Amino acid sequence: MASRTLLMSLKNKSIGVGFSDPDWSNQDDIDQFIALASKKMKVLAVMAGNQNYLQTLDAMREHFTYVREIAYLVPGAGNRLDPDTMNISTGFKPVLVGSFNLKRGFYNVVRSEKAEHDLHPWGLNLSAVQRIIEYLSDPGDLVADCYCGGGSTALSCVKSGRRFIGCDNGLVSKLVKGAPPEQTWADVAIARVNEELEMQLKKVA
pLDDT for 84-99, tens place per residue? Predict the structure, then answer.
């Protein structure tokens, strides 16, 4: 798993903040990720799928001293819970924030201004992600995303003056028709970051 390889290569508590929206297909993988991330990160903010919320909350409480929550509000109607099929379409996504102290305060509601699924089927709104990153870190801090997907976290870090490290070796073609067969989500994130850097260089040239 790419996330484990990345985290194992880093020194303990070398990452200021981790922010990830993991692949929820295997809760055991998520539990292992949280356990390892707690050793490498001072703060971890993780999108908790509504179906996996309680299991993820338990894992966060096991490995972090404090666990708080941010409500990531999504656009459009929601608030539908189907107990028979476990299809859940609520109006928000819970973001669990684990830390080892309570020195930093933050707003506990972030509104996604629009869905951004052009690059990734579950892409997160860039401005909402950037606000979360700014709540939880300072300029110059190292931020990690071990499931970087379309690169919203990476791009948010570039725009807000944070350093970034991340990975995602998932193939884009598994989720996006017509994508190059060998293209990974890390490739997509790198391309977005390079494009943003080129724009910033043009502004100062």
Answer: 555 555 688 899 999 9
Angle between helix 152-160 and helix 185-204 axes, rounded to 10 deg: 20
- Reported as a single tens digit per residue, the pLDDT across 193-202 is 999 999 998 8
Angle between helices 152-160 and 126-136 (to 10 degrees): 60
For 57, the token pair is: 């909350």
Q: Which residue has the tokens 């993991």?
A: 22
Is the pLDDT at 136 greater than 70? The verdict is yes
Q: Is 157:140 a contact under the CB 8 Å cutoff?
A: no
Residue 162 has pLDDT above 60, yes or no: yes
- The pTM of this model reads 0.90
Nearest one of 125, 19, 119 to 72, comparing CA atoms: 125
Contacts of 80 (CB under 8 A, 6+ apart): 87, 88, 89, 90
Number of neighbours of residue 61 by Cβ within 10 angstroms: 14
- Alpha-carbon distance of 5 to 36, in angstroms, equals 11
For residue 31, which of 13, 46, 42 has the smallest C-alpha distance?
A: 46
pLDDT value of position 81: 57
Exposure string of 116-146, with b = 16+ CB inside 10 Å and e = fewer, is: beebbeebbbbbbbbbbbbbbbeeebbbbbb
